[in-house]
Write a sequence for this structure.
């Protein structure tokens, strides 16, 4: 008969505290760190791309179809994530903030668990710290497709390891393929980790000669990707938008990319190193070198070596994919986050093995230090969150989303059904003010490529603008964009030199300027931005 032992209250309390310290406290710190790098919706707008995702998400909730009724060259999933977030919060950006938090937190937690199981608690904590540091340096306010892809990339890592532990179970490869499909639906460039998993399977098959397992994994991955992608294709085909989605997401992006060569990749890597942080980049490079040396010395028999293999393959793939456009936007390097975090975790593991045989004895101290750094290093962030909570307590019926003077002017001087166009590609203003644009092609006058597609979208813009003129046009060109986008004011336009060799403008731009000049009058200047109102209802 089994003997039951009565627990001493002190021992039970000690076990509870140990469980909190070992499991709950690290997750709480990761959550705190994730919240600390996200933009607070009560105090600022997101970036340009993030703003258009919000706007398209709001249109989806009204029954609009992306690509067909509003233009954007990213995959559709990011629009529907935004639509879900807005639906959860009744149209507030806080719902999207909540989903961002869940995606970042989930990705970081998976990375932490993987490192802890393979290398111990301190390397896992160090990897998570680097993860959040790199993400924070590249997020640019958040709500980018690259940010959401981090979760799916880490799911691929997790199930890659699971598939190695149980090579006969095809379900894990199916899930890797499903994560591949989801990343394709976010942005086709965001697939480096899944591509690395496929490459690692191939190399492992070369070593083991178990080709049947490799082909089964390939089939399962393909099936998983199809499960994610095919329903989306069917949906857009049923709405008559599939051809336009292909034109925008695939054809245009191929035309928009500057091509790929070694100098461009090296230049992009240099830009990425500065973007993610030189200290993080240097540590990750060291981790990469140690990983390569370990595999060359020990081979690919142990699970840690196979884990390092996916990182060794994936980081160069990510470097190439992030360089395809030839542009060094910070958020393009969000995809470097898993490689920097996991490789730095391995570097910490190597150093601890060299200098301390029982490193996890200090894990509680390390965690306390990380919590302190996170709290005291982000005092402004916590102050702003505190202000939101205070406002929620004192004025629960007030709005908690930031609105600038331009958005407030639009709301006060137009009716909800009236149209507003933002000259300068700032659709976040349409979202915040609740006023739709009359046109689908929002980047105008930039068309980016000299192709029939670009010319068609410019012609579509002019046709829609003249057929349904907006009540207001806001001349809202950012300072950094004045060498790319010509001003609506003729005098200002002459003063700013457009770098025509670096941009592609619509060829019907003179016609657009003429239409606006004939039918609109400048009525106000808000925050340095000119407001133009339609002279008559029927110009």
């Amino acid at each position: 008969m089994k003997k039951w032992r009565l627990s001493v209250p002190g021992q039970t309390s000690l076990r509870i505290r140990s469980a909190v310290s070992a499991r709950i406290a690290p997750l709480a710190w990761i959550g705190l760190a994730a919240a600390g790098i996200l933009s607070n919706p009560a105090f600022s707008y997101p970036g340009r791309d993030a703003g258009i995702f919000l706007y398209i998400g709001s249109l989806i909730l009204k029954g609009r179809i992306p690509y067909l009724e509003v233009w954007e060259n990213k995959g559709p999933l990011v629009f529907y994530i935004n639509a879900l977030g807005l639906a959860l919060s009744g149209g507030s950006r806080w719902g999207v903030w909540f989903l961002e938090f869940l995606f970042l937190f989930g990705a970081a937690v998976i990375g932490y668990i993987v490192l802890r199981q393979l290398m111990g608690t301190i390397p896992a904590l160090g990897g998570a710290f680097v993860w959040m540091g790199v993400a924070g340096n590249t997020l640019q306010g958040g709500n980018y497709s690259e940010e959401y892809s981090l979760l799916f990339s880490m799911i691929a890592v997790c199930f890659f390891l699971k598939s190695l532990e149980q090579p006969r179970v095809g379900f894990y490869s199916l899930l890797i393929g499903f994560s591949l499909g989801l990343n394709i639906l976010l942005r086709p460039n965001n697939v480096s980790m899944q591509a690395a998993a496929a490459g690692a399977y191939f190399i492992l098959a070369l070593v083991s000669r178990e080709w049947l397992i490799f082909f089964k994994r390939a089939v399962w991955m393909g099936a998983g990707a199809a499960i994610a992608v095919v329903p989306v294709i069917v949906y857009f085909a049923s709405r008559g938008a599939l051809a336009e989605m292909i034109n925008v997401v695939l054809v245009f992006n191929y035309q928009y990319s500057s091509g790929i060569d070694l100098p461009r990749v090296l230049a992009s890597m240099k830009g990425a190193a500065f973007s993610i942080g030189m200290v993080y980049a240097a540590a990750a490079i060291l981790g990469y070198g140690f990983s390569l040396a370990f595999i060359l010395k020990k081979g690919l028999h142990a699970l840690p070596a196979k884990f390092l293999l996916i990182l060794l393959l994936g980081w160069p793939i990510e470097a190439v994919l992030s360089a395809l456009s030839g542009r060094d936007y910070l958020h393009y390097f969000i995809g470097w986050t898993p490689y920097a975090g996991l490789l730095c975790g391995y570097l910490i593991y190597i150093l601890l093995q060299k200098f301390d045989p029982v490193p996890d004895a200090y894990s509680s101290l390390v965690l306390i230090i990380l919590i302190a750094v996170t709290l005291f290093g982000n005092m402004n962030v916590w102050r702003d969150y505190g202000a939101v909570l205070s406002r929620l307590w004192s004025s629960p019926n007030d709005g908690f989303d930031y609105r600038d003077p331009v958005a407030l002017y639009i709301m006060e001087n137009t009716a909800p059904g009236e149209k507003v166009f933002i000259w300068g590609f700032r659709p976040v203003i349409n979202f915040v003010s609740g006023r739709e644009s009359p046109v689908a092609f929002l980047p105008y006058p930039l068309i980016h490529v000299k192709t029939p597609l670009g010319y068609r979208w410019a012609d579509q813009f002019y046709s829609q603008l003249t057929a349904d003129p907006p009540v207001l046009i806001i001349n809202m060109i950012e300072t950094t964009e004045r060498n790319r986008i010509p001003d609506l004011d003729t005098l200002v336009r002459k003063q700013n030199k457009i770098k025509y060799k670096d941009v592609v403008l619509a060829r019907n731009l003179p016609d657009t300027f003429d239409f606006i000049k004939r039918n609109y009058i400048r009525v106000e200047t808000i925050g340095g931005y000119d407001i133009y109102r339609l002279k008559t209802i029927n110009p």
